[in-house]
Specification:
Strand order of the largest sheet: 1-2
Strand content: under 5%
Oligomer: single chain
Largest sheet: 2 strands, antiparallel
Number of domains: 2
Radius of gyration: 20 Å
Shape: globular
CATH architecture of the largest domain: Orthogonal Bundle
Helix content: 25-40%
Mean pLDDT: 94
Distance between the termini: 16 Å
């Protein structure tokens, strides 16, 4: 959700457009592992899809219009109707709890979250940050470095948006943390998870020192970023 206006896609920024990103998972061996040519043949053989592609694009299914169709669907997933948004717009504060309000303050100050997750979708304008998940050993994904080969990008990953974050577990580029509670614990004391990280951002050089209550409040704020259309889902 909320990925229309990004400058880069995937955690290492290897795709420059949403259309390019949309085709990536199809052939990726860790995801669908499906040759794109076979996917196109299946669409052409499918009566409904073949007819629909002709109706919309005037031609048979192809890699180009498949990427366009997938990207256009993804563009429809923009969300901004959350307890946080309604509170900030002075429309409704009933769903934005006192705990979430305290969490917002922690997000902006002691938690240092806002330093990276700013902007309407909390993406930080697609910056790449090294949050300490690279040690060259058990944590060995080089991140943005694989694309740029710039030593400054070693272990840096694209800052993800936080809207609907309570629904998108697992977390981090490699799915290392199963819950938002785990994520908060990591940021609070990163050395307990990766003791010899390489190039970790200065913001995370020292433990945050969040209390149990502060961590609970921060979690409440993150949950408040869930759009109304998804609130029926279990969080």
């Amino acid at each position: 959700m909320n990925i229309t206006d990004h400058n880069f896609y995937f955690w290492d920024g290897r795709a420059a457009t949403l259309e390019e990103q949309a085709l990536g998972p199809i052939e990726n061996p860790a995801e669908m592992n499906l040759p794109l040519s076979l996917a196109i043949r299946r669409l052409k053989r499918h009566a409904l899809y073949a007819k629909s592609f002709y109706a919309i694009y005037g031609v048979a299914p192809s890699a180009l219009n498949l990427s366009q169709a997938l990207a256009d669907y993804q563009r429809s997933l923009e969300t901004s109707d959350t307890p946080f948004d309604r509170y900030m717009q002075n429309q409704d504060s009933s769903e934005f709890s006192l705990s979430a309000r305290r969490g917002l303050q922690i997000f902006n100050t002691k938690g240092k979250c806002f330093d990276c997750h700013f902007g309407s979708d909390f993406t930080g304008n697609d910056q790449f940050k090294n949050i300490g998940l690279y040690d060259g050993k058990s944590w060995n994904d080089k991140g943005r470095f694989e694309i740029t080969h710039n030593p400054k990008d070693l272990g840096a990953f694209k800052t993800p948006g936080l809207r609907n974050i309570a629904l998108t577990a697992p977390y981090m580029h490699n799915g290392a943390f199963k819950t938002l509670t785990d994520v908060i614990e990591y940021y609070n004391t990163p050395d307990k998870f990766v003791s010899a990280s390489i190039g970790r951002d200065a913001l995370l050089q020292q433990p945050l020192g969040l209390s149990a209550q502060e961590k609970s409040d921060l979690l409440a704020f993150l949950i408040s970023l869930t759009d109304r259309r998804f609130t029926q889902k279990k969080i």
